[in-house]
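Before we proceed, please read the two lines closing this message. Report back on whether the structure tokens fit the sequence:
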Amino acid sequence: MSVLFSLLSAKGGWLQARHAVVTQNLANADTPGYAPRDLKAAGFEDLLARARSNDRGLSLKATDARHIEAVALTPLRTDGRAVHGYETSPAGNEVLLEEQSEKLMQTRLDYETTTNVYKKYLGLLRTAIGGASS
């Protein structure tokens, strides 16, 4: 499977989860004491730590004799939380309908962009195979 398909699938999953969180915020707009939540995408350090922890790990490869020799990497300082690419975190304030509606619209636009990229990529594959593009 293409890296692009994997990225689009991951982005689609994140957008679906964010849509659920934002609609839950809107549904609880009148609930006393309810703190809205949002999804936070994993940062670079989280992704690097996850890549280093898999079976392959991250390794440096010298392809030329003039390359500097690889040394062991020091561990990154992390807070120890394992995430699946994103996490739910409290926003810390009351639910503002305008803010949540804006997040919902941005999620929708991101989803449309993601699906359009997916469709274009499939069209390119069809063209490369020799089929009709749509």
Observations:
- Confidence is low (pLDDT under 50) at residues 80-85.
